[in-house]
Amino acid sequence: METPFPPFEPNGPDDSARGPRLREIPLRLVFPNLITILAICAGLTGIRLAFENRYELAVSMVLLAAFLDGIDGRVARLMKATSKFGAQMDSLADIVNFGVAPALVVYVFALDQARSLGWIAALIYAIAAGLRLARFNVMAERENKASWQSEYFVGVPAPAGAMLVLLPVYLGFLGLATDRTFAYLSSIYTVLIAFLLISRLPVWSGKSEGNRLRRDLVLPMMLGVVLYVALLMSYTWEVMVFTVAAYLVSLPFGARKWRRKYGTLTIEEPGIGDDDIGRHI
């Protein structure tokens, strides 16, 4: 029979026998992680919709996942809610939203007609996206970062890769016949995008603090953004094809700017490669 009163403890309560005490977490620390979880849900839902042959919704969900995955880190920094847990969640979301989901959507839509070659192309892209994200995380963890890291990416970033690899789907929506020839060409294109992800090509990021816009160009730029969004809402897949083409065309110009400044065609910065890989395995 239990006594109605707790036993007498002359030295006070013994907290060592208790489990870890739960503490309250500020809501601002939870909000960015909720955005990351929503991004994962959107990416996985896009995969399901693709298998249900609802391709337009599938692509929309993948692009939404990429958007949410792109803003969660910025929201965390604005709210001063960055954490190691959030960083790990973001890395897991990246591989789903920028690697697995786009690869499966483009496979179900076009690459499956190339049979094993199409599946191999989708696998290569998904693995390349994972390698690209791993390299980015290694570089982000460095204490001493190179000055060029605020201005250039090493290879095409994973969010842009997800947008680029879906080009065969955009073209299919515009009425291009998705026959076996289209599947083979799409497989080659998918492998090409995978190569751009893991390459050492210098890709201009536009994040440098030294980039400034003339005052007289601010309003025209804002008007241009509004026009782009309006066209995207009205002519979604035409604008997406144009965006992919414009991005691919811009890559040589970024590499040319790097070569003029640093004298090389690719980024050969010490520490990106075997030493980093070996240290983090």
Automatic annotation (TrEMBL):
<dbReference type="InterPro" id="IPR043130">
    <property type="entry name" value="CDP-OH_PTrfase_TM_dom"/>
</dbReference>
<protein>
    <recommendedName>
        <fullName>CDP-diacylglycerol--serine O-phosphatidyltransferase</fullName>
        <ecNumber>2.7.8.8</ecNumber>
    </recommendedName>
</protein>
<dbReference type="GO" id="GO:0016020">
    <property type="term" value="C:membrane"/>
</dbReference>
<dbReference type="InterPro" id="IPR048254">
    <property type="entry name" value="CDP_ALCOHOL_P_TRANSF_CS"/>
</dbReference>
<feature type="transmembrane region" description="Helical">
    <location>
        <begin position="182"/>
        <end position="205"/>
    </location>
</feature>
<feature type="transmembrane region" description="Helical">
    <location>
        <begin position="57"/>
        <end position="79"/>
    </location>
</feature>
<dbReference type="InterPro" id="IPR004533">
    <property type="entry name" value="CDP-diaglyc--ser_O-PTrfase"/>
</dbReference>
<dbReference type="InterPro" id="IPR050324">
    <property type="entry name" value="CDP-alcohol_PTase-I"/>
</dbReference>
<dbReference type="InterPro" id="IPR000462">
    <property type="entry name" value="CDP-OH_P_trans"/>
</dbReference>
<dbReference type="InterPro" id="IPR012616">
    <property type="entry name" value="CDP-OH_P_trans_C"/>
</dbReference>
<feature type="transmembrane region" description="Helical">
    <location>
        <begin position="29"/>
        <end position="51"/>
    </location>
</feature>
<keyword id="KW-0594">Phospholipid biosynthesis</keyword>
<keyword id="KW-1208">Phospholipid metabolism</keyword>
<keyword id="KW-0472">Membrane</keyword>
<feature type="transmembrane region" description="Helical">
    <location>
        <begin position="217"/>
        <end position="233"/>
    </location>
</feature>
<keyword id="KW-0808">Transferase</keyword>
<dbReference type="Pfam" id="PF01066">
    <property type="entry name" value="CDP-OH_P_transf"/>
</dbReference>
<feature type="transmembrane region" description="Helical">
    <location>
        <begin position="91"/>
        <end position="110"/>
    </location>
</feature>
<dbReference type="GO" id="GO:0008654">
    <property type="term" value="P:phospholipid biosynthetic process"/>
</dbReference>
<dbReference type="GO" id="GO:0003882">
    <property type="term" value="F:CDP-diacylglycerol-serine O-phosphatidyltransferase activity"/>
</dbReference>
<keyword id="KW-1133">Transmembrane helix</keyword>
<dbReference type="Pfam" id="PF08009">
    <property type="entry name" value="CDP-OH_P_tran_2"/>
</dbReference>
<feature type="transmembrane region" description="Helical">
    <location>
        <begin position="116"/>
        <end position="134"/>
    </location>
</feature>
<comment type="similarity">
    <text>Belongs to the CDP-alcohol phosphatidyltransferase class-I family.</text>
</comment>
<feature type="domain" description="CDP-alcohol phosphatidyltransferase C-terminal">
    <location>
        <begin position="217"/>
        <end position="252"/>
    </location>
</feature>
<keyword id="KW-0444">Lipid biosynthesis</keyword>
<keyword id="KW-0812">Transmembrane</keyword>
<dbReference type="GO" id="GO:0012505">
    <property type="term" value="C:endomembrane system"/>
</dbReference>
<keyword id="KW-0443">Lipid metabolism</keyword>
<feature type="transmembrane region" description="Helical">
    <location>
        <begin position="154"/>
        <end position="176"/>
    </location>
</feature>
